[in-house]
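User: quick one, sequence for these tokens?
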């Protein structure tokens, strides 16, 4: 089970929701289900409008993850990640802070999502 806390000036207060282990929904799907107003358009990793900051709360640091080429390209073109960060990702598998909510698949980590 993972706690996902959403925080944004667009909300009156932070919202924490619980995701069950093995939940294979996207972060955007969980946000929508809980009326968290993350902006989105394509829901397919192409427009970049759902970019959010994902910060680990477990104290273990971010887990190794795989970003799709689509997500890497959109984050790079939107200036959310640098070429250097992407190069580091290839070596360390440590995800950048900025992610696309529609492409981010839930893990078992507690996270803070800022948008
Ligand atoms: S909604 Fe377009 S990239 Fe996520």
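Assistant:
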């Amino acid at each position: 089970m993972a706690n996902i806390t959403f925080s944004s000036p667009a909300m009156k207060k932070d919202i924490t929701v619980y995701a069950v282990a093995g939940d294979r929904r996207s972060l955007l799907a969980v946000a929508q289900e809980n009326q968290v107003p993350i902006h989105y358009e394509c829901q397919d990793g192409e427009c970049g409008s759902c970019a959010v900051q994902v910060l680990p709360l477990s104290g273990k640091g971010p887990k190794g993850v795989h970003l799709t080429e689509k997500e890497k390209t959109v984050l790079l073109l939107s200036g959310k990640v640098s070429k250097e960060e992407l190069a580091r990702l290839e070596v360390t598998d440590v995800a950048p802070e900025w992610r696309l909510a529609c492409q981010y698949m839930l893990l078992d980590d507690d996270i803070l999502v800022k948008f």
